[in-house]
Structures are given as C-alpha cells and as structure tokens.
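dude i think i finally got it to work??
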Amino acid sequence: MLTITRLSSVCLVFLLTLFTAGLSAQNGEVRASPAASASQTLGADTEITFNYSRPAVKGRTVWGGIVPYGMAEGNKYSNDKPFPWRAGANENTTVTFSKDVMVEGEMLPAGTYGLHMIPAEEGEWTVIFNKVSDIWGSYQYDESQDALRVEVSPEEAPMQEWLTFGFDDNTASSTEAYLHWEELKVPFAIAVVE
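look at this
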C-alpha cells in the first residue's frame, strides 16, 4: 500500500510539473520571435558572437513592409525621431568581438555593439555598430554613439522563413558574416587584425 501511495505522489508531482510548464508557455513566456545566437572563431582566439531574436516571415512583406527602407518614421517610443532597423526583433541585436577586428576593411575595437541596419530599396545598405548595446530595439538609437558604419551590398538568397545570422567563406583569419531573412542575404566581411 505504501508503494502505491509513493507512486501516486510521484505521478501527481510529474503531472503538476507538466501542467505548470504548459501554463507558462500560454502566459506569453514563449516569444513569437525566439532568442538565438551564432558564433565563430577567427585566428587563434578571436570570438564573434551575434545575439538576436528571430522573427518569422509569416506571409508578410518583409523588405519595404514590416522593415521599412531607409530610417523608420519616428514614433512615441523614439520621441518622434527616425531610427534604423534593429536587425532582428525584441531587444537590440548585439555582436560581440573578443578582440579588435576589421569589418569591411575598417578597424573596430573589441567589445559588444548594438547592431543596426538601414535597408535600401536599391543599392547598398548601411550596417551600424553602435556602442550602446542594451536598448529595446532601435527606438533610442543615438548616432553619436556609432563606433563604425559600413556600406554593403545585399544579395538575393533562397527563402529563409526565420531571420538568421551566420558565417560563410571561412578562412583561418576571416569570414563573411551575414543576416539572412526572406529572400535576401546581407553579408559583411570580418577579419582578424594582423
């Protein structure tokens, strides 16, 4: 009889745990744009890490739709000041470099940066590495805190439902980092400082 009681207690605790976990997911703890990260090592010990949230296309018009071309119009969250795209969803997308690197041939000191982009309908996009990396989205973006801006050319790419960051064309000392979403890839070259 005692064994059955213990077994019943264990089963009850297990079921309550499952029920509680299910309620947590229903109470909004599971985000529509889940958190993700992507990392790459260059050279002997130069670490690159992107931390971001991954929105999905969900049948929407992405470029020129939910992500405007140029700076987004100001709103109440930005004090009516135009702002760039946060290169993801939710909190500010960040990129961390453990050592100084070259981005598109320009020096960028080691550190963690807020990553923002200014999409263009035609021609080059602006990729921004901002010293402020702990804001929500890009609403409070401050251009005076830019550490580096580079111009890059987006490329057509196979359909990618969920926004992702990754690395292509890796060598021992360089890589092509990219943002890929919908049918567009935005690459930018990163290399170790020699």
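Confidence is low (pLDDT under 50) at residues 5-26.
im so relieved honestly
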